[in-house]
Amino acid sequence: MSIPKRQSTAAVEAAMAPPSALPPLLAEDCHSGIPARHHQQAIESRARLYSNRTVPASTPRSQETPVLPPDVDRETFNLAVDELRKLLGAENVELNDKPLVDGWYMEHPNTHDAFHIVEQEDLVSSATVYPGSVEEVSTIVKWANKYLMPIYPISMGRNIGYGGAAPRLRGSVVVDLGRRMNQVLKIDGESATCMVEPGVSYFKLYEEVQKTGFPLWVDPPDLGGGSVLGNCIDRGVGYTPYGDHWANHCGLELVLPTGEIVRTGMGALPGKDGADNPTWQSFQHNYGPSVDGIFSQSNFGIVTKMGMWLMPATEHQTYMVTFPHDDDFEQIIEIIRPLALQRILGNIPQLRNVIQELAVLATPRSKYWSGSGPMPRETLRALAKKYLPTGDCSWIFYGTVYGPEATRNSQMATIKAAFGRVAGMKFYLPSDLPSTHYIHSRVKICSGTPELRELDWLNWVPNAAHTFFAPITPTRGRDARIVHELVTSLHHKWGFDSFPTWCVAGREMHYIANIVYDRADADAKRRVNGLMHEMIAAAAREGYGEYRTHLLYQDVVARTYGFGGQALLRLSETLKDALDPNGILAPGRAGIWPKRYRGRGFEILEAKDESAPKAKL
Ligand code: EUG
């Protein structure tokens, strides 16, 4: 085993210095870059985040590299990598043997989880391979079967808060699909559809749609840098009327774990003279079983092409409503439900806690308050009063109505009257608020323009990382109360500020608890882990489950869906063993372990150190 060299003081200082190069622009040779319209903002955003950093930009490795996957010895690994270089070209295979760089959102690593909760070196790959076509993806899959090498596909690796680009199984070979497969393959202005490869970000799709001149919207989530395809197969959420991404996908091309290439939906029926089927992006189903579902949040195939529906552009009006009391949320949610069910609310609105509003101003919490543990409620009230244009409030609702003015006016009148039942509510239009207010970013997101503002709350603590606890409840005040009280009290027990946002639809809501922590603070990381495990278990006892979760919690979350003695997980395992007999594809993803690894201790079923903080907080 080679002994890693300690970096000299000078090397550490060099690593701490702000990078001199500008963050990369979106271009042919940088699919994951920043659109020109956001370049200045990105430069400032990065400078702010790096000014709150106390850890070196890069960390020397303390373990022998590349980290090997289970059951593969170094000799076999080296042999396999040599063969992969021959198959794909040496320039398309990269060993993960350099210092780890966490970077930031727009310059993120594909070697590990930049927002590490466990040791930075735990969730790491052994190597990265860059396929350039679906045939090359198939080649990689066949290679993995030959060497029993676990591979972990990523689209762009910007699944931030859920594990980023990191493989679930340490030492897996990351298949970075996005770097060379990043084209918008079609934009159809007549049917309002598109087809994308894994490396197309919301930023890029937006630019490409603009170039066509068609009046069409993409549906961005809170941040625009992620992969359209990757977000969709992880069942992410956006904020135009097309916010349910998976519901708006239409047609997949994928590579099975044996290397076979499959098209689903109408794409299974070849078009005339070998063309793509003309109905592939218009009708979601093929004849026979509907199989698309088993390729989302799974490890049954590698999606290489995906159709998406685009929304015809329309007039729109975003608004904001503030509510004064912490306890108002139950009444607010009861008001939202019928409005959402009747489609008077045009999109998936967000109901945010006042702390998000303060944090998104990008000022570190330490500038306001020097204590540890959660910020006291009175401090937060005083800060809101002083720094927010709305003054003191508890909840902020961001909604948007769509369509011609007469329609919007009538919807808005109904919405205003309904929220008017909450004592002390205040209604705002974007024009009522300063040009720097976060509402202007929501206006863009809710009308199809991807944004970069959301991560400003990462300045709340130094070296900030975050993860999400994301349970689903019915859209109902009493369910909201159970989850919100459970989350708030457990955040306080483990010493964290609670940052809740509800993304509300008619029948269900995604409760997003955003845990922001200092990734240089080992104790904070231990507490995040304890908090996550305790919240998942406590919510499950009440009957609530997460829609999505970080790599570290996929085993436990999968097991909370345990009806019938884990019948669902067993079904997934049956499918897994049939489709991936050698267990090479993303072992452990979504809690699904292939036979080869099952029950050997790879599952993470509890926090190793369960002790809550000793201090009374
Ligand atoms: C957010 C929303 C999500 C998610 C992660 C973050 C919003 C943050 C609805 O899903 O998974 C403000």
Please describe the structure with a list of short key phrases separated by commas or semicolons:
Uridine Diphospho-n-acetylenolpyruvylglucosamine Reductase, domain 3, 617 residues, 4 domains, Uridine Diphospho-n-acetylenolpyruvylglucosamine Reductase, domain 2, binds 2-methoxy-4-[(1E)-prop-1-en-1-yl]phenol, nine-stranded antiparallel beta sheet, five-stranded antiparallel beta sheet, alpha+beta, 15 helices
CATH architecture of the largest domain: 3-Layer(aba) Sandwich
CATH superfamily of the largest domain: FAD-linked oxidases, C-terminal domain
Give the distance, in angstroms, between the N- and C-terminal Cα atoms.
45 Å
At the first level of CATH, what is the class of the largest domain? Answer: Alpha Beta
User: What is the number of independent domains?
Assistant: 4
Radius of gyration: 24 Å
User: Which small-molecule ligands are present, each listed once?
Assistant: 2-methoxy-4-[(1E)-prop-1-en-1-yl]phenol
Helix content: 25-40%
Number of separate helices: 15
Instruction: Report low-confidence residues grouped into runs of 5 or more.
Output: 1-12
The assigned structural class equals: alpha+beta
The whole-number mean of residue pLDDT values reads 95
| Broad shape | globular
**DSSP summary, beta strand count:** 22
Estimate the strand proportion.
Answer: 15-25%
CATH fold-level label of the largest domain:
Vanillyl-alcohol Oxidase, Chain A, domain 3
Largest sheet: 9 strands, antiparallel
